[in-house]
């Protein structure tokens, strides 16, 4: 199962994330011996928001046993990692072909009516220059 770690600090390397997971998951867990991670099983991503422009870093960790992965999610969700509260959840692979924003199936007449309505309205707070 792939596990997504959100809100991790910028510049975190694969090995640092592995050490964080191993150190914090072993606290009070009987299943920690079943957790085997390596830095090769981790993908790091950085995404920049177009509105506020901060860079966010994510880590996708491959954990072989789904029971251990669910326990990692339960234990590490909300932990503090270098002064950042991280979010841990199951990673879902999404297809762009199923995105409803791309495949807009609205009837042609509805779209034309909406555009026509927008063009006919008078702007209340506008002034002529």
Give a brief description.
Helix content is 28%, strand content 23%. With 129 residues, it is α+β, with helices and mostly antiparallel strands.
Description:
The protein is of the alpha+beta class. It has a domain at 2-90: Alpha-Beta Plaits (2-Layer Sandwich), CATH 3.30.70. The chain has helices spanning 14-25, 66-76, 108-120, and strands at residues 2-8, 42-48, 55-62, 80-81, 84-85, 87-90. The protein has a four-stranded antiparallel beta sheet with strand order 2-3-1-6, covered by helices on one side. Strand 2 (42-48) and strand 3 (55-62) form a beta hairpin.
Q: Which key phrases capture this entry?
A:
single chain; alpha+beta; 129 residues; Alpha-Beta Plaits
Order of helices and strands: EHEEHEEEH
By CATH, the architecture of the domain at 2-90 is named 2-Layer Sandwich
The helix content is 25-40%
How many helices does DSSP assign?
3
| Main structural class | alpha+beta
Give the strand line-up of the largest sheet: 2-3-1-6
CATH C-level of the domain at 2-90: Alpha Beta
Largest sheet entry: 4 strands, antiparallel
The CATH topology of the domain at 2-90 is given as Alpha-Beta Plaits
Instruction: Give the CATH superfamily of the domain at 2-90.
Output: RRM (RNA recognition motif) domain
Write down the overall mean pLDDT: 78
Our estimate of the beta-strand percent is 15-25%
Bulk shape = globular
The low-confidence parts are none
Computed over alpha carbons, the radius of gyration is 23 Å
Distance between the termini: 61 Å
The counted number of beta strands is: 6
